[in-house]
Write a structure and sequence with these properties.
By secondary structure, this protein is mostly helical. It has ten helices and no strands.
Length: 143
């Protein structure tokens, strides 16, 4: 039990096995630097973080940069936050494939995603796939 509270022990454990975060104390699973260290190596370690860390914008964005599927572990408040999603898709266009369909029909979000990677147009709503500006951005991003 004492080792779960020992920051140095947990840091070493997470450095070699990111999912070791699950064995850290609640207090340590609420430390941004520890959680970021884990999710930068394995995005799925986000599931072991505290609720507060899954709600933390910086932590969530680090995990999403590694893999868009981390969105399933991001707190619902952020998954439903347009501003957060706009930043997320601009850093990893694959996030567009993971977000709610209402956001795949948001022109600004889709434009940010296709600017980062033209391939993301396939995850946009049909209406936005047919949008000339979106299509042009997608084509120019892949050149």
């Amino acid at each position: 039990e004492r080792l779960r509270e020992d920051r140095e022990v947990v840091l070493v454990a997470v450095a070699s096995e990111p999912m070791a975060l699950q064995y850290a104390s609640n207090r340590l699973r609420d430390k941004p630097d520890l959680v970021i260290k884990a999710v930068k190596q394995d995005w799925s370690a986000l599931q072991c973080a505290s609720k507060g860390m899954r709600r933390n914008t910086a932590v969530a964005l680090k995990a999403l940069k590694v893999n868009s599927r981390a969105l399933c572990y991001v707190h619902r408040e952020l998954r439903e936050n347009r501003s957060f999603l706009l930043v997320a898709v601009s850093r990893n266009a694959w996030v567009l494939d993971e977000i709610a369909s209402e956001f795949a029909d948001d022109r600004a979000i889709v434009l940010a995603a296709v600017k980062q990677g033209g391939f993301a147009i396939r995850f946009a709503s049909g209406r936005l796939q047919a949008d000339r500006a979106v299509a042009l951005q997608a084509v120019s991003s892949d050149c």
